[in-house]
Specification:
Blueprint: H1 2-16, E1 30-34, E2 37-52, E3 58-63, E4 70-71, E5 76-80, H2 83-111, H3 117-142, E6 145-147, E7 152-154, E8 164-165, E9 172-187, E10 199-204, E11 207-224, E12 229-236, E13 248-254, E14 259-263, E15 270-272, E16 275-277
Antiparallel strand pairs: 1-14, 2-9, 2-13, 3-5, 3-8, 4-7, 5-6, 7-9, 9-12, 10-11, 10-13, 11-12, 15-16
Amino acid sequence: GFKVFVNGKIKEAMAGMANVPQTVSATKAQSSDWQPVIDAVGSLRAVRGADLSLEVPGVVEEILFKSGDEVQAGQILLRLRNQDEVAKLQSLEATAQLAQITYDRDVKQLKAQAISQAIVDNDQANLRNARAQVAQQQAIVDKKVLRAPFGGRLGLRQVDLGQFLSAGTVIATLQSLDPIFVDFLLPQQAVAKLAVGSKVETRVDAFPDRVFAGTITAINPKIETASRNVQVRATLPNADQKLLPGMFATVQLETGTAERLVTLPQTAVSYNPYGSRVYLVDEKG
């Protein structure tokens, strides 16, 4: 009797070790439009950007901008000390004025046949030479002034008043931020799906909840032999100037037409080495 009692308890214990009922959830499979896309990574760059510097050396006499200013094309940003160059320019201008007076007098005397044509030609050459020297000196004076080559936002000021600047010293960076480019690479297999004017959606880590829409404006006509990738450029509106050159970006490009497909949550698919599996609830439940 004791043996039978023990065997019964063992059976009960083993029966309790069976798989317990699992709680599952189900969802209704539905058809929806699915747009094929290509994902890529890229970086932002300004439509126009430059590190501003001067061609000639000199001492900073006047700074007419602040770090982060918005400037217009042609706006004066900085002046170097130029008293010597201006004085020389005035001297050359006086010489040119004298040459002009001499030439005008020669023309009148030539009409009266008081001088020869050779004298008039010589004085005319002197006048042209004097004007050329004035233009040359004026160019030297102009190089002492830094102007914004295009409109945009200035970066941090790198120089101070009274500082001696060598030729080529960076004074500040200037970036035009609206619109802005995003450059990215795609494999050569995607070339057939690319077209200028195609829509792209760009995201950056700084604004994870925002999508920046743009269009493809250029496709490099050359495939990089090392990676077999093609470089693509898209243009994004950036009126609020949230996007900055150098930012890392993810780009999503729509390709082809939308397809009608049955869609399911990703958690409904079981993945294993033999393939993917989806469980179907039949009519019997």
